[in-house]
Amino acid sequence: MLKEVRINKIILISVLSVLLALFIIINIFLYFHATKCKDVNCFTNALASCNRANWIKEDSRASWLYTIKGMKSENCKINVKLLQIKSGSLSNQNLEGKTMDCYIPIGSSDFPEKQISKCNGLLKEDIQNLIIQRMHAYLLENIGEISQNFEGI
Predict the structure, then answer these.
(1) What is the DSSP letter of 39?
(2) What's this model's pTM, rounded to 2 decimal places?
(3) Which residues pair with 44 in a beta bridge?
(4) CA-CA distance, 136 to 80, in Å (whole number)?
């Protein structure tokens, strides 16, 4: 009788251990699994509902990797990585491989770069620095023309 109780306890502990392991594995899979989107529609649908997904956006100027990480407070967290610059000046190539995290309101299907003020990270900082450098160079090149335009006001 005592032997049967021990065997039943061992079986019960074994079954519970297997169930617990399965529960942990399923939760890990669900937490880390992200849909690999092949087109913009898949990505915008995932973005609108803030479902974990990633998508590589290819255009004539650059390749971008968008990764929806999930909800953070009232926003959807998206990691943006610039994979490759395909056209433009050499100074743009310094941006390759850099990332930024963007926090877009839940339900929005706007791409993160449309709301760059809601982003932070090295990619955003370097883009802003590049814009400032180009504006400075433009002003220096056209200072005479700009001052003439102001005189006419």
Answers:
(1) S
(2) 0.72
(3) none
(4) 27
